[in-house]
Sequence to fold (477 residues):
Amino acid sequence: MTDFSRRDLGKALGAACAATAFGAPAAAQVLKCTDLSFPNGFKWGTATAAYQIEGAVREDGRGPTNWDLFSHTPGKTFNGDTGDVADDSYHRYAEDTQLLKNLGVQTYRMSLAWSRIFPEGRGQPNPRGVDHYKRVIDNLLENGIEPYVTMFHWDLPAALPGGWQNRDTAHAFADYAGYMAGQISDRVKNIMTVNEIRCFTDLGHLVGIHAPGLKLPPAEVNQVRHHGTLAHGLGVQAIRASAKPGTQVGIADNTTFYVPVIETPEHIAAAKKATRELNAMFLTAIMEGRYIDEYLNQQGANAPKVQDGDMKAIASPLDFLALNIYAPEWVRADDSAKGYATIPHIASSPHMASPWLIVGPEVAYWGVRQVSELWKPKVLYISENGASADDPVHDGRIDDADRVMYLRNYITSFRRAVAEGYPLKGYFLWSLMDNFEWADGYSKRFGIHYVDFKTQKRTPKLSAAWYKEVIRRNAVV
Fold:
């Protein structure tokens, strides 16, 4: 047994039974199939985003964003919903901190609204916006909660000419990120550059269902993607240049993970290859510092135009990698030139209240494993994982057993990855509370606290009680 690493032992035991005496010598480990504990020091948290919870869109010098314009355009969001008020967390952040404290979380992932800091996207900073976030951060720290800050979560200052179609926006982002890192890194030790490049590029510029609502041709979409990844890379450099020593820098990426249909060597290899190739324009480029040949050959004349130094910036070393993991894609090995075939979702594929949220807990394990094996990050976090549910209220209670089912199964799969020795160090549940769900408006609820959007009353759901017990025990329950 002394020749085996913890990962060797965990893999040998498989999904059903894993080593659970974390930190003990391999020979002393006790095998308990029913023990689903996490190692000491594992960080539990929740996550939110500024535009989805803050409201107060015209207060204290905040400038308009692409989402203000998009949500106020008729027909773009469910029921014409906007983020004008949302959860009013701009005014109620201290109340929301108490929700966090009651859960017992150690961490909280929040984002900053770029247009509160630079109303025009660049230029002179707005001190009222800076001071607001300093108060929010101080309030979290006073309550024993460590903030993890995301610099950009989709709400782009509307004044920036051309938005993400303009390369200059990447440089504007870096200026903003560097400035704010200098302002908050005396108390914030973990900073993420951007959230989900695939969403703010593709959903907004290819599919057109998110701001700014465009459907661009392939070459222009690829250039927008490049500007998004470049913003991340330049942001990493700017944060490192301006932040206090010891600040940890990463990204929150919604990598599309391809899960093997059967755990056999050929299907596992096919899924891993698919994950690398089909994320070529995003995480693969960031982690490898180039656009791989498979992507460039496929795109041909539509490939992005890359300037000198771009890929070096995009590949700026990261202290951690954070993953937003929700729904799987499935892959099988085949004898095609690619060596794999994706399996489409069908009508009977199980899903949560959001039709896109296909339920496949195994993606939690495979996402962590594939990223670890492909790119060997030092530290991994799950920056988002959660579920939409219908959440009916009965006698003041919200018994969201379906969400508990979803979370229990996914966290069990994350625990499998931890047991096998992959460097997963923390988990941020999406979301602390119901909020503005982008184009779905207020029709889809992801929170573990129910929000009555008329009164702004927050009510813990069954899932909040469940998650609190998970945190208390440091184990799946």
